[in-house]
């Protein structure tokens, strides 16, 4: 609310009064507290700061981030079957008739399991994996893992560069079918795996 008051030197010094041109000797004085305009400025400053922060970081809100996507960083593929994690699964073959299965199997469960690996028609290989262990097939084992002899798959009938459909399962879980890449022995890390 605005009121007219007689001219006061104190009001002029404080700065919350103005002269009224049509009435000499009177001042137009604000009757409300000075904090109202300060609060409004503070709110406006906070809103501006929030807008700048959102604007500056907004590009990461709409930009595709490749690091949030799971992908297989090696030549093989990953398969999750129940409590088992199969990593870097691939087959090495030069002629497309027989191939060596390469993979790492991690048993995250509390029970030993027998993993069934089926390829082609009814050809099935079984692999025993103890609870809480990690087994590496076909490559040098990392410290703390068990290394076993490579598994040779006979009669895969898949040329290098193509994909071999394989089915992975163990008792009590739903199996998973995955297309497994077949590579040849051109790369030095795979040349000793050619059957």
Q: Would you write up a description of this structure?
A:
This protein has about 200 residues and is α+β, with helices and mostly antiparallel strands. The protein is about 15% helix and about 40% strand. The chain is built from three helices and 13 strands, in the order βαββααββββββββββ. Strands 4, 5, 6, 7, 8, 9, 10, 11, 12 and 13 form a ten-stranded mixed β-sheet that branches. A three-stranded antiparallel β-sheet has the order 1-3-2. The longest helix has 23 residues, at about 35-55. It starts with a strand and ends in a 12-residue tail after the last strand.
Low-confidence stretches: 11-17
Largest sheet: 10 strands, mixed
* Spatial separation of the terminal alpha carbons: 95 Å
Give the number of DSSP strands.
13
Query: Roughly what fraction of the amino acids lie in strands?
Result: 35-45%
Helix share, percent: 10-25%
SSE class = alpha+beta
From N to C, what is the helix and strand string?
A: EHEEHHEEEEEEEEEE
Q: Can you tag this structure with a few keywords?
A:
single chain, 17% helix, 3-stranded antiparallel β-sheet, 3 helices, 195 residues, 10-stranded mixed β-sheet, alpha+beta
């Amino acid at each position: 609310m605005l009121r007219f008051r007689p001219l006061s030197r104190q009001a002029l010094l404080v700065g919350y009064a103005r002269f009224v041109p049509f009435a000499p000797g009177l001042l137009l004085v604000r009757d409300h507290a000075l904090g109202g305009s300060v609060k409004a400025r503070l709110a406006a400053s906070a809103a501006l700061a929030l807008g700048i922060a959102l604007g500056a970081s907004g590009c990461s809100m709409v930009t595709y981030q490749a690091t949030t996507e799971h992908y297989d960083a090696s030549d093989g593929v990953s398969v999750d079957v129940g409590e088992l994690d199969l990593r870097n699964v691939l087959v090495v073959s030069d002629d497309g008739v027989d191939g060596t299965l390469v993979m790492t199997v991690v048993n995250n469960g509390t029970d030993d399991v027998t993993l069934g690996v089926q390829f082609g028609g009814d050809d099935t290989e079984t692999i025993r994996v103890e609870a809480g262990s990690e087994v590496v097939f076909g490559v040098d084992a990392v410290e703390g893992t068990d290394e076993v002899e490579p598994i040779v798959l006979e009669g895969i009938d898949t040329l290098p560069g193509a994909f071999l459909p394989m089915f992975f399962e163990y008792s009590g879980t739903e199996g998973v079918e995955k297309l497994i890449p077949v590579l040849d022995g051109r790369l030095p890390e795979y040349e000793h795996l050619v059957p």
